[in-house]
């Protein structure tokens, strides 16, 4: 009751404030949340975390956010975490995240990351969800999985050079004509606006190799809650802070 009153009040406070079109979310703290809630098996945190993204997407849509990027797993996570945990995360990616995209007709799906780090079945499920959602136009959802910001920039430069070689352009010509826009066109998901706002949960104050190229002008909002405990009011508060900051800057 109180919660819904507070939610409505926050929504009213957002009216007339600048709104981010693109919100990127670093969903951190699943394992600490699980341990804090008394579960020995940290996979339960990942399950709640994956289901929680569905709710977050709905709150974002309700708040008029048309583009969401969510960090599911880093390239480092894929290499360094134990295989049972990664297997479970991949299973959730297939059975919860890809499945959600198939059923929720709002989001056109994009994938950012190195698909060859993923098990075949996960890569296939994601590619199928990308295909199924290709013609939607209400919102863009990017799942960053097997993702590293530095590797994305490296891959983009490599791809610029590959194209140039295929077109028979010399290295001197490429170097001479290289622009930010050209690198931008070779990122994993070209054509999206840069994130206006990045939210990271769990109190960690780092970017950790997320969206290196795209976040040079983004606002960043750190939130102490663990990801599965992040609520709609926390999103609305982040949007309010964002709105006020942007207003101040524009005046
Ligand atoms: C975020 O939660 C999910 C992934 C990075 C896969 P963590 O698994 O990082 O949980 P904490 O941060 O250790 O609590
Ligand atoms: Mg973490």
From TrEMBL:
A cellular component term (GO) from this record? plasma membrane
Describe its partners and assembly state: Homodimer.
What broad taxonomic lineage does this protein's source fall under? Bacteria, Bacillati, Actinomycetota, Actinomycetes, Propionibacteriales
Per the annotation, how and in what number is the cofactor bound? Binds 2 magnesium ions per subunit.
Which keywords appear in this protein's UniProt record, sorted alphabetically?
A: Magnesium, Metal-binding, Transferase
Query: In which domain of life is the source organism classified?
Result: Bacteria
Instruction: List the Pfam families.
Output: Prenyltransf (PF01255)
Q: What does the record give as EC number?
A: 2.5.1.-
Co-factor requirement = Mg(2+)
Function, in words: Catalyzes the condensation of isopentenyl diphosphate (IPP) with allylic pyrophosphates generating different type of terpenoids.
The active site lies at 28, 77 (proton acceptor)
Q: Which residues bind substrate?
A: 29-33, 46, 74-76, 81, 200, 206-208
* Protein's organism: Kribbella soli
Q: What is this protein called?
A: Isoprenyl transferase
């Amino acid at each position: 009751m109180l919660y819904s009153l507070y939610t409505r009040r926050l929504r009213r406070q957002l009216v007339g404030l600048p709104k981010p079109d693109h919100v990127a979310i670093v969903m951190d703290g699943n394992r600490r949340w699980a341990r804090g809630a008394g579960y020995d098996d940290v996979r339960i945190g990942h399950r709640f975390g994956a289901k929680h993204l569905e709710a977050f997407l709905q709150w974002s849509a309700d708040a008029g956010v048309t583009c969401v990027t969510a960090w599911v797993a880093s390239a480092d996570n894929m290499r360094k975490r134990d295989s049972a945990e990664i297997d479970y995360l991949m299973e959730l990616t297939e059975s919860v995240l890809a499945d959600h995209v198939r059923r929720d007709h709002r989001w056109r799906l994009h994938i950012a990351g190195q698909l060859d780090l993923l098990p075949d079945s996960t890569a296939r499920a994601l590619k199928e969800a990308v295909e199924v959602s290709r013609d939607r136009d209400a919102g863009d959802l990017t799942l960053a999985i097997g993702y590293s910001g530095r590797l994305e920039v490296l891959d983009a430069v490599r791809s610029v050079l590959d194209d140039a070689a295929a077109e028979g352009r010399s290295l001197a010509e490429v170097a001479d004509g290289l622009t930010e826009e050209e690198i931008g066109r070779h990122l994993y998901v070209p054509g999206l606006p840069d994130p206006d706002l990045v939210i990271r949960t769990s109190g960690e104050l780092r970017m950790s190799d997320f969206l290196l190229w795209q976040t040079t002008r983004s606002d960043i909002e750190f939130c102490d809650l663990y990801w599965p405990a992040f609520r709609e009011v926390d999103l609305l508060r982040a949007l309010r802070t964002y709105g006020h900051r942007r207003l101040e800057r524009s005046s």
